[in-house]
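Usage example:
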Amino acid sequence: MVTQKVAFQGEPGAYGEMATLSQFPKAELLPAKSFQIVFQSLESGAVDFAVIPIENSIEGSVNETYDLLLNTNMVVCGEVYQRIRHNLIINPGADNSKIKSAYSHPQALAQCRVNLQKRNLEPIPTYDTAGAVKMIKEKKLNDAAAIASKRAADLYGMEIWEENIEDKTNNYTRFLVISKVQSEPTGNDGTSLIFSVKHVPGALYGILAEFASRGINLTKIESRPTKEVPWEYYFYVDFDGHRNDKQIRDLIRVLKKKTMFIKVLGSYKRGEFH
Amino acid sequence: MVTQKVAFQGEPGAYGEMATLSQFPKAELLPAKSFQIVFQSLESGAVDFAVIPIENSIEGSVNETYDLLLNTNMVVCGEVYQRIRHNLIINPGADNSKIKSAYSHPQALAQCRVNLQKRNLEPIPTYDTAGAVKMIKEKKLNDAAAIASKRAADLYGMEIWEENIEDKTNNYTRFLVISKVQSEPTGNDGTSLIFSVKHVPGALYGILAEFASRGINLTKIESRPTKEVPWEYYFYVDFDGHRNDKQIRDLIRVLKKKTMFIKVLGSYKRGEFH
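Running the assembly step on the lines above writes:
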């Protein structure tokens, strides 16, 4: 059997790696420095799949991955919900009372702001959560902590000072799996597509009416600037159903006539919570 | 006459200062380190107005200011569109051929990415555009440039190596003016409000139908996570008309019944382009 290769963004121990492992427990994982490199690895055929974050339940949409989905010729074929639990991680044997700062990705720092203030720890931004753990280990910083997953602490042989230090407990990130190959219907599917409409009153409403009149459940709507004409948007919608379903095929046929631009990103089995 | 006080985020020379000056040319301006401090200055009465960025025509919405608008008891009373023109700024007399890096806010660096690659300049993130100019001046960095407004170059007595180095020319930021006091109708007004709906099929569509049936032109719709229940959203909508107009009053009365939560942020004279 050929081992599948899957790219994710971040260092080993990143939340993206955990989401990837939940879908591809036996695959060969390729960590990438940036989302752009993740997409390039997939498009060049260096990997078979990629797993990208699209939305966090506290911070909202990930603008960069939304923009990259517009321009790729790959399809969305899966969905994963990853629970985010942040931990204060220190060097083994470091004295808690001497810790003065906490290194992590700016979003992780923001999600632990109240807890960091209570402990009087200065937040210091880094490019990655697991990368912060690696850094305080390599530099032997005994007066600093890192904020990252339990997995990152284990991988680098570090100590957990305190678990679950996020301020809000309902912290999940939704990841999408992308590849060259479409997914078959499972009976519990979602579909994502992008469209743009003329800048006239009621244009967006006219499109949403096509979903409502068919009883199709929209689960998310997001707008991103076209970057060409100011205040013109691409709308990204997620809804229940598979692109092979008759009523979704009808919907897409009508939308092709009523939109200026439409791109079906793909259909996928709805994700489970991990 | 009492001089008005107005807060903005960033250092003198920041684009936020330019937007503020276009609305309040004679006011006393108070630069603030963060958006949170901007809101606190207004709420405490330390300033009369604040000017905050809400959306950029390339990068999209500013999540942090959207979230702060949800929790403030201040109202939106004005709108400004500020043209963003980035410049490569260096120390006077510095040798162009020796410049190796460019310091600026991550969004400004992203907006000049292609141009920086052409010149082989390494992008280095800082917290503010004008702050980067101040920094390369104070540290006398002759092998580095900063990316910021022409005004920042003038204020710090620096040299412009090249003007308008942004990759896309349609670069505008939309700012909102906030204060304690509502604005009177001018005949060319916009209104902003926030609502949430039950997580049932067609709920969002049912709200948009109220706008469409009255011929009210939605100019923007944005969703932000509630942060309490995963995948439940607050919707932020901007539309034409003033809250004192009869049909907008009717709309708001109906929306109060059909939404779980509604907050009218305010009505304001539509902004001009600067």
